[in-house]
Amino acid sequence: MSFWAITILGIYAFALFYITVYCVIQFDLLFHYLKQRAAPNVVLPNILPIDELPFVTVQLPVYNEKYVVERLIDAVAVFDYPRDRFEIHILDDSTDETRGLIAAKV
What we know:
The protein is α+β, with helices and mostly antiparallel strands. 50% of the residues lie in helices and 13% in strands. It starts with a helix and ends with a helix.
């Protein structure tokens, strides 16, 4: 066999090995995904009583986001957390009409 034939055969064998390893990894990911999906949904108990939960502040930095700011505020407002231990800060440096949208939404 010539040098070029051995070189091409080596590159081909390496590529096949690489593809085989990649496929095995993908099958492993699929196996773990299906195993997790088949497990029953377990609801974890609330570890802390409601009056001992920490105070949480969510900060939303916004800059000229007039198309998404209302959906963003709505998404954060529906968090499942006690209202007396939760606050939302909207940090707005906008130069367009986003400020008016935020003021109306708040």
